Amino acid sequence: MGARGLPPALPAAMPALLLLCLVVVPSALLPPAAEAARGHRDDGAPSGGTGGGCSNSTAPRLWVFGDSYADTGNLGDLGRELTHAWYDPYGDTFPGRPTGRFSDGRVLTDFIASAMGMPTPVAYKLRRGAGPGLLARGMNFAVGGAGVLDTGNFQRNISAQIDLFQAQRPAAGGGARGCDAGVALVVVSGNDYSYAADKDNGTSAAIAYIPTVVRQLMEQLRRLRDEAGMRRVVVTSLHPLGCTPLFTRALNYSGCDPLANAGAAQHNAALRSVLAGLDPANRTFLLLDLNAPFAALVEAPAAAPGRFAEPRRPCCETLDAGGYCGQQDDDGKRMYTLCDDPTKHFYWDDAHPTQAAWAAVAEAFRPKIREFLST
Ligand SMILES: *[C@@H]1O[C@H](CO)[C@@H](O)[C@H](O)[C@H]1NC(C)=O
Ligand SMILES: *[C@@H]1O[C@H](CO)[C@@H](O)[C@H](O)[C@H]1NC(C)=O
Ligand SMILES: *[C@@H]1O[C@H](CO)[C@@H](O)[C@H](O)[C@H]1NC(C)=O
Ligand SMILES: *[C@@H]1O[C@H](CO)[C@@H](O)[C@H](O)[C@H]1NC(C)=O
Ligand SMILES: *[C@@H]1O[C@H](CO)[C@@H](O)[C@H](O)[C@H]1NC(C)=O
Which keywords fit this entry according to its UniProt record (predicted)? Predict the structure, then answer.
């Protein structure tokens, strides 16, 4: 495992020190040179940008901004060590091979699109292979490792992702006024906080960072409505970070870290009040509650595990706390164990849910999404 593979501030032995944890697998860390090379391939004039502007199309369009909980292939393949999601055993359940999704199968974006009755929008990085039909349905700009602010991973932050969306708009036209760009999904799962905890002193630094992150997130949400012309914006709440295996491993998966969960709750309260200020009538913004359905499924006591027999132990478990799912030694021998049945596990790897977990969470939010988008 390379020096950059795991943030040094995430020793499994001291989870209580960290308020909030890494949500994207450590593989999201990219060396600047690699990112620069990627940028060259990637950052030419956006092609196939037929759907970015104003249109009267009645087919729903979904534009996704965020991190690894939503990424469907934007991180790119820079080798097993840096980008695990492009290597086995990722993608085992769906579609049977790795696709850059941080799970054994489908991720949040897939389930949101399905709740909207539409296909998963194409990942920005894969847009050249997409037909015009799919390109007209929106695009996914989310990339594993991203944050609202920069996370030191050289990933596009949310604001840069929105810039990409804006760059796709037809040059002519009178901006967003009177224009319906469609639906935006904004998924922020905690990379800003793992970065802060990593850089400074764990808990205190991450707590102190909450107002900065939420204020910047507010600016980007405002942009999506006022500049990008999104008719509806769905923004996710933070899940109980202290229940991710990154924290629970040190507790033998017996329970969650209360401090990290309190931090997530504080972020969510701040976000709720920001949305109340931006949109008192709840016309444009929906705070999509991931925290409650996650909590209901992952905080289950060992004696009564509920829907998932293993609510906290990941299906893909590293031999070493500092390892990663998919890791191999020099002889190609697995440095992880894989469970027999991922549908029994809520977590796939140290930070990301299984497809079965996302499906269970989606059951909880599907009616809300449909109601919100139907008006
Ligand atoms: C949308 O519909 C309105 C009214 O029917 C029309 O004036 C406008 O030109 C249409 N815009 C586009 C981009 O088709
Ligand atoms: C987001 O990224 C862009 C491009 O790298 C950078 O200029 C900007 O300062 C970043 N925004 C924030 C809030 O960190
Ligand atoms: C970091 O935390 C330790 C103990 O928690 C404390 O002694 C130290 O002063 C802190 N350092 C900074 C820069 O806040
Ligand atoms: C961890 O939990 C398992 C059962 O879930 C138990 O068999 C094992 O002994 C525990 N290990 C420690 C170190 O407590
Ligand atoms: C808007 O949503 C919030 C949070 O769900 C709720 O507390 C508030 O009452 C809603 N406001 C209106 C005007 O419906």
Answer: Hydrolase, Lipid metabolism, Signal
Establish if 137 belongs to a structural domain. yes
Structure tokens at 212: 């900065």
Each residue's pLDDT tens digit, 185-201 = 999 999 999 999 888 87
Does residue 1 lie in a domain region?
no
Q: Ligand 2 test: best mutation among 150, 162, 216, most atoms within 8 Å of CB?
A: 150
252 lines ligand 5 (CB under 6 A): no
Q: What is the DSSP string of 104-166?
A: SS--HHHHHHHHTTSPPPEEGGGGGG--HHHHTTEEE---TT--SS--SS----HHHHHHHHH
Q: Which ligand is nearest to the CA of 157?
A: 2
CATH of the domain at 96: 3.40.50.1110
Inter-residue contact 316 to 89 (CB < 8 Å):
yes
What are 320's two structure tokens?
């070493």
Q: Which range marks the domain in which residue 355 is found?
A: 18-28+56-374
Q: How far apart are CA 120 and CA 106, in angstroms?
A: 10
Domain count along the chain: 1
345 is catalytic: no
Query: Is residue 352 among the annotated active site residues?
Result: yes
Whole-model pTM: value is 0.84
Catalytic residue among 27, 68, 194, 237: 68
* Catalytic site includes residue 159: no
How buried is 306 (Cβ within 10 angstroms: 0-12 exposed, 13-18 middle, 19+ buried)? middle
The residue assigned the tokens 């191999």 is: 328
Share of the chain above pLDDT 70, in %: 81
Chain-centre distance for alpha carbon 18: 20
